[in-house]
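Listing S7. Sequence submitted for prediction.
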Amino acid sequence: MTDLKHAVDKTSISLYCQPGASRTRVSGLHDGKLKIQLAAPPVEGAANEALIKFIARVCGVRHADVQILAGAQSRHKRIEVRGLSSAQIHDLLMLYHR
């Protein structure tokens, strides 16, 4: 099960991110966290920006509604998504699991 915490209008999610992949996608679980492979390289914040854009696009929220709370320099990240419940986010991300 993934690590999700829900507040009134925002949800934080723990993710494991792998930059430098051939394409951006949800690729399963890693230590109980959703694993996101990112096509962007891990330089100058490119992978973090790609993660934010991917989550916003998949969840149908504005780019500004997604924020990295912890782990900007790590593969283990905690992000916050405003406007959706944890169940909605999980279901939307799992649609991209391949």
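Caption to Listing S7: primary sequence and predicted structure tokens for the chain studied. Strands lie at 4-6, 10-18, 25-30, 33-37, 66-70, 76-82. The longest strand covers residues 10-18.
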